[in-house]
């Protein structure tokens, strides 16, 4: 790409304000490729940054291009890049680990002490994310796919990886009863992963019939609107709980309290959601009395390639989740739709120019 030819990038420069800025491509470093944006999903994290210029206690320090769920096409090869050709479609892993710290040496790249994550306030200095027409990226973090692969489906690999990591943290689900609290994108994908992992039944709860309808399309056996019918969930509290595994994907503290009641003795609760920062009140004694496994999750590790395989083989069909696509220039509309859970599940940004 001619370094004198600029490209469009969507930049968040303060809360609830984005603008298109022209960026100049830099010279590719060794082992890098330049990628033309295929599609990039708007994540819940992006919505938090958009609303408050911060997320989970991390404040954006300087204007930033968001976006970490993306697919694209290789447009240029840097020095010593092998295994790729111009025009290759790629899935893009946003977790760039150092490979040397203690977590990395233990096989936990998602917990890397020197991790570089684009479009996030957690990486200082910030690295621009994928809401731009072109970006430079390590070839080692890209996976080439069949040319016939849909770029919009390919952009679901990252969120599916997060959900799969939570499901794998829960252990063997074969024949187990699973509850997923929250039918947003991450929760719906967790339900799909649980079914793919052999769960006997998957129940999803949410406050919206619209999102629950998509959860049903994605494989949920039972969907409960806890705003309209709380008693349908409360019946599972009987007998010290009836679910082997509860995945908390709503980010709502009442749902976490319900999880403690709904999980059976010796069961597992997995925190997939981004709960509010700071201290929270929970019935911690229930963890002891029920001898629960209470697990956290952070992004993903080896699940990225597994998630890609699930999508390529249509073992998880993400197509029902895509609500709309918008050009980068129409980001305001895209963000407004993405935060309206009555009207959307997953909104993507693309470059139509």
UniProtKB/TrEMBL annotation:
Originating organism: Alginatibacterium sediminis
GO molecular function: oxidoreductase activity, acting on the CH-OH group of donors, NAD or NADP as acceptor; zinc ion binding
Cofactor(s) required, per the database record: Zn(2+)
SMART domains found in the cross-reference section: PKS_ER (SM00829)
InterPro entries (alphabetical): ADH-like_C, ADH-like_N, ADH_Zn_CS, ER, GroES-like_sf, NAD(P)-bd_dom_sf
Name of the protein described by the UniProt record: L-idonate 5-dehydrogenase
Entry superkingdom: Bacteria
Keyword Oxidoreductase assigned: yes
Keyword Oxidoreductase set for record: yes
One Pfam assignment: ADH_N
Alphabetized Gene3D superfamilies for the sequence: Medium-chain alcohol dehydrogenases, catalytic domain (3.90.180.10), NAD(P)-binding Rossmann-like Domain (3.40.50.720)
CDD domains membership: idonate-5-DH
Stretches assigned to the Enoyl reductase (ER) domain: 13-349
